[in-house]
Design goal:
Layout: H1 8-27, H2 35-56, E1 60-69, E2 71-78, E3 86-87, E4 90-91, H3 92-100, H4 103-111, E5 113-119, E6 123-125, H5 142-152, E7 157-165, H6 175-180, E8 186-190, E9 199-207, E10 210-212, E11 217-226, E12 232-239, E13 242-250, E14 257-264, E15 270-277, E16 291-299, E17 303-309, H7 314-325, E18 329-336, E19 342-344, E20 357-361, H8 365-370, H9 372-380, E21 385-388, H10 391-396, E22 408-420, E23 423-424, H11 440-448, E24 453-462, E25 467-472, E26 480-486, E27 492-495, E28 497-498, H12 502-508, H13 515-529, E29 537-541, E30 545-548, E31 552-558, E32 570-577, E33 587-593, E34 599-603, E35 609-619, E36 622-637, H14 638-641, H15 647-656, E37 660-662, E38 677-686, H16 691-710
Parallel strand pairs: 2-5, 2-7, 7-8, 8-37, 10-16, 17-18, 17-20, 20-21, 21-27, 30-36
Antiparallel strand pairs: 1-38, 3-4, 5-6, 9-11, 11-14, 12-13, 12-15, 15-16, 18-19, 22-24, 23-25, 24-28, 25-26, 26-27, 29-31, 31-34, 32-33, 32-35, 33-34, 35-36
């Protein structure tokens, strides 16, 4: 039974009943007692009874206290780099300081609690009396600042937000949408005036992020000038300290954007970085936007593929059409007819090693034996091959000729016709070859929705070092390898199911397309022709080049032996500047598990420069693996993109929040509502848990018993 103060009448009834019980007990005694003794014993009995009742009934008393909460006003101060720019005969930061020191702010502090915060990319508490403002923030995030300040002051009587900014928002949440949901007025003070400036800027560089060795690719560079109309100067393209190209340009009218195109021909595979540079001119207001860094992933030039087929059929036709349509491939085909005589093309005996990939479509042992020496020489050079097996392969019967070449154990082999539906293995769900979709669930669904194959070469076992990506189950509990890869000596892939052309042709008939057909073969060719493989530990940054002030995100994927994601690992990173001088320059970052079962983390911003990172993953203090990577933070920042004040944005923020917008000269907070807020607080005391009640019961009864004995009462 729970007693609160609102049930006081129940307690009163219990008090009366307990008093009557005690009174009747001591009304007549033998021997008779004097009144003082009678009243004292009655009181002891009554107190003991009441304390016992409160203990057994689990009584709880509630007390209510009314508090007056002082009004709070949040003061948000923009400390981004754009506040250093000039505004008339002063600077934006000086105007902000002037407002902070004004009589209006002093009067406001008398009427309300003023909580000051500075913001750029993050919101930081600021002591107006003890701290100095540092205008070095590399981004302006109005939306994040508004959202965070309400969260921080949610327990207080927050009446309004006073925002002092130039409004040059360039990062984070939409400030207008955030302001709509605040349920608080925002009083926005717009600081700064657009003023003629002297500045040269490489506004942007457009380029294809993937290029090929020996092939030209273009960089489109967009230059904007303010105050240097007609000036002639060089525009450089550099790689490291080497000048690759130079264009002599003339700055157009102020504010106009000009495009210049550089052509580069990468010679080295891998991640290649280039700098586009405009020389710094005397009098420039911003010296950080004259240089941009770009990063190209350079791959080997067009892959030379040799396609060999045992006959002219739909499998050959659809695969040939796909290879010819992709500009990344240079294909040569060879087709055999009856008696294994070529009807299209000739086998390139002396040129085979010039090819990057060999694709054999249902080639029987007779054709393989004819060119065995050259094909083995090709494979022994660790060059990749894709084998699509079918009826012709099975009818050739001389399977021992393929032993050591194909990733199978040929001791048990047969041919199964019929509708063949494949199931991805745990490894196949994440392997790049079989990833028709990036999401594992969508990928499994995509495989299930493809037309069935019409047959399979039933090879019971794959070789020990092979990985089975997809299998077929003719009987419950049996899994026949269908798509198998191996990379012991060189990369080999074999598919025992056929034909694949149905994934192209039949899909058009149901209103879909051949995307998955193309994805499968693109994935297969990419995996076969690159040195990279699917790793059980994958750690990477989301970009290679960042603007100054941009957050840097990292993601780690950790798989077990069955390629199921491990969720109990410890993943961490060390971020190291290339020009590191002391260990103190190293940044340690712990990654945490997200909703997609990946480990993620971020660094809000880093100084310009080149960085490397080293990630490691542990499970139960056991090392699972490490990964390394690199990235660059360029000097060009988000603040350099558009530093002009945006007073229209500040006006919208004030409007949607039922606040007010001010500019220099009309700052007025007289209509700001600053009344105190009454808040009723409840405090509960659980009497029955207190040991004092039990002590009172024992003390009263013991004292009563001792007095009764002294007075010779029974």
């Amino acid at each position: 039974m729970l007693f609160l103060t609102e049930n006081l009448w129940i307690v009163v009834i219990i008090l009366i009943i307990s008093f009557l019980f005690s009174f009747l007990h001591y009304r007549k005694t033998f021997p008779p007692l004097k009144n003082p003794h009678r009243i004292f014993l009655l009181t002891l009995r009554w107190i003991a009874f009441l304390a016992l009742f409160l203990t057994l009934s689990q009584a709880v008393f509630a007390f209510f206290k009314v508090e007056l909460k002082k009004p709070f006003v949040a003061l948000l101060l923009d400390i981004s780099e754009s506040m250093n720019l000039k505004s008339g005969d002063t600077t934006r930061k000086e105007i902000l300081k002037e407002i902070v020191d004004s009589e209006k702010i002093k009067d406001l502090r008398k009427e309300a609690e003023l909580e000051a915060y500075t913001f750029s990319d993050t919101l930081t508490p600021f002591d107006l009396k003890a701290q100095k403002l540092d205008f070095s923030g590399e981004v302006t995030s109005l939306g994040n600042a508004l959202d965070k300040v309400k969260e921080k002051l949610s327990d207080f009587n927050l009446k309004a937000i006073l925002l002092l900014s130039d409004g040059a928002n360039n990062y984070g949440k939409d400030p207008v949408e955030v302001a709509k949901g605040l349920n608080l007025p925002v009083y926005a003070y717009g600081i700064g005036e657009p003023a003629p400036s002297f500045d040269l800027s490489i506004d942007q560089v457009r380029y294809q992020e993937v290029a090929y060795t020996g092939e030209k690719t273009e960089l489109e560079v967009y230059v904007v000038g303010q105050g240097y109309e007609g000036k002639k100067l060089p525009l450089f393209l550099k790689q490291g300290e080497k000048i690759l190209d130079q264009k002599n340009i003339q700055i157009p009218s102020s504010g106009l954007m000009q495009k210049f195109t550089f052509e580069i021909t990468p010679q080295k595979e891998g991640q290649n970085q280039y700098d586009v540079i405009l020389p710094l001119q005397e009098g420039e207001t911003n010296n950080k936007n004259n240089k941009r860094t770009v990063s190209l992933k350079v791959l080997k030039s067009k892959l030379k593929i040799l396609l060999i087929a045992s006959r002219l059929d739909w499998e050959y036709a659809f695969l040939k059409r796909f290879l010819e349509s992709d500009e990344d491939f240079e294909m040569k085909s060879l087709v055999y007819g009856k008696n294994q005589v070529p009807i299209k093309g000739e086998f390139p005996e002396d040129e085979l090693l010039n090819f990057d990939l060999l694709i054999l479509v249902d080639v029987p042992s007779s054709i393989f034996i004819k060119h065995r020496t050259r094909i083995l020489e090709f494979l022994n050079k660790k060059k990749p091959a894709l084998f699509l097996l079918g009826e012709q392969f099975f009818r050739g019967r001389a399977f021992k000729e393929f032993t050591g070449v194909l990733p199978f154990d040929f001791t048990e082999i047969s041919f199964l016709p019929g509708d063949i539906v494949l199931n991805l293995t745990p490894e196949g769900r994440f392997h790049p070859v079989t990833s028709l979709e990036k999401d594992p669930f969508e990928n499994s669904k995509a495989w299930a929705n493809q037309p069935p194959f019409l047959g399979i070469v039933h090879i019971k076992n794959s070789s020990e070092k092979a990985k089975v990506l997809a299998s077929y189950s003719p009987f419950e509990g049996e899994a026949v390898p269908a798509i198998v890869v191996e990379k012991d000596k060189g990369k080999i892939m074999a598919a025992t199911c056929f034909p694949f052309w149905r994934w192209d042709f039949l899909m058009w008939g149901i209103g879909r397309d051949n995307t998955y057909f193309k994805n499968l073969f693109k994935n297969s060719i990419r995996w076969l022709t690159t040195q990279e493989d699917v790793d059980r530990i994958q750690i990477k940054s989301d970009k290679i080049v960042y603007k100054s002030g941009e957050p840097i995100f990292f993601e780690a994927k950790v798989f077990d032996e069955n390629y199921q994601k491990i969720t109990l690992a410890d993943a961490s990173l060390k971020i190291i500047p290339t020009d590191q001088k002391t260990d103190q320059d190293t940044i340690d970052l712990d990654l945490t598990l997200d909703k997609n079962l990946n480990y993620t983390g971020s660094v809000t911003s880093l100084p310009p420069g080149k960085y490397s990172f080293r990630g490691e993953v542990k499970l139960d203090n056991r090392d699972l693996g490490t990964k390394k990577g690199e990235f660059t933070v360029e000097e060009f920042s988000l603040e350099d993109q558009n530093p002009n004040p945006d007073k229209d944005l500040l006006k919208k923020i004030a409007q949607v929040s039922d606040g007010k917008y001010f500019e220099r000269g009309d700052f007025d907070l007289s209509d700001l509502s600053l009344e105190e807020k009454k808040e009723e607080k409840e405090k509960k005391i659980a009497l029955w848990t207190s040991p004092f009640l039990l002590l009172i019961v024992i003390a009263c009864l013991s004292f009563e018993w001792a007095i009764r004995r002294r007075l010779q009462l029974p």
